[in-house]
Amino acid sequence: MNKIIDGKTVRDIKKEELIKQILKLNKQLSLVVISVGDDEASKVYVSQKEKMAKSIGYNFINLHYEKIETEELVKKIKELNKDKSITGIIVQLPLPMYLDKEKIINSIDPLKDVDGLTNDNLVKLIKKKNCLIPCTPKGIMSLLEYYNVDLTKKIVIVGRSELVGLPLFHLLLAKNATVTLCHSKTLNLQSYTKKADILIVAVGKKWLITKNMVKKDAVLIDVGINRIGSKLYGDIEDTAIEKSSLMTPVPGGVGPMTVISLMENVYLAYLFQEKQLS
Ligand code: NAD
What distances in angstroms separate CA 250 from CA 5, 7, 254, one per listed residue? Predict the structure, then answer.
């Protein structure tokens, strides 16, 4: 039996569906990605977004700054907020430490916040209101849906970041799932992971979760991307697939879903701005 959760295939299906919707608009949507500094991984992620955006037919703009101050960046974002030709804005993370990340992210108009990271969108998500949802949790929800994973089972998330773990916790809760959220201060992590029917790990530590820490026949979702030399590793030991019923590979699992979810959010942002969604 094939146990691999194939993010690339699901991404391609989602992409076809999205292109059909966009063609009906008869309008070109624009995505602006703001990047600062010289983070090597960020360059790879920005180019993946560019490739996908262009293949869908979006106008893609990368505003790259070697160095910029918080106030100047906030001013630029406010200009983009007012610009009617721009549909979506994201700030590529991580930002250099000297910048005020909170202030910068929250200066994005929530209706253009296609990464779903502003406080406004996070509160709406918690309150179960229609909003732009962070791309990685959104992509994971799409994968779980595509593979018909039963959400009434015991779910454990490891990692509570505002980018992944925390919004995912609320998205699952909104589907009436029962979820335990573990983090760096959780004592005896394996006492939780071993009981999980669905285990989702978003930490950023190579093979933090070893094969002996997972339950037999569990569904394993590995969000981690750990670059060591030229190779990518997940947060879950790769041999855990032998014990699982389904598992995402790294790369090729959650990553492609994050990118397509961003593209879906650009389309949704347009609908919100045109008040076709509220
Ligand atoms: P983060 O550093 O913001 O958060 C990490 C979380 O892990 C924290 O909540 C922390 O409490 C928890 N943690 C740290 N050490 C732990 C430990 N020993 N035991 C249990 N919990 C621990 O990271 P993030 O932005 O949420 O990203 C996590 C990982 O996911 C990274 O590898 C990142 O590259 C990857 N990521 C992948 C995608 C994708 O598309 N595949 C998208 C976003 C992030």
Answer: 10, 10, 8
Q: Known catalytic residue: 92? A: yes
Selecting among 14, 109, 113, 115, the annotated active-site residue is 115
- Model pLDDT for residues 68-125, shown as the tens digit of each residue: 999 999 999 999 999 999 999 999 999 999 999 999 999 999 999 999 999 999 999 9
* Residue 276 placed within a domain: no
Distance CA 153, CA 134 (A): 24
Residues 151 and 77 both lie in one domain = no
Q: Both 36 and 93 in a single domain?
A: yes
Q: Write phi, then psi, for 27 (nearest 5 degrees).
A: -150, 140
Residue 108: CB within 6 Å of ligand 1? no
Give the range of the structural domain holding residue 72, as residue numbers without chain letter: 26-109
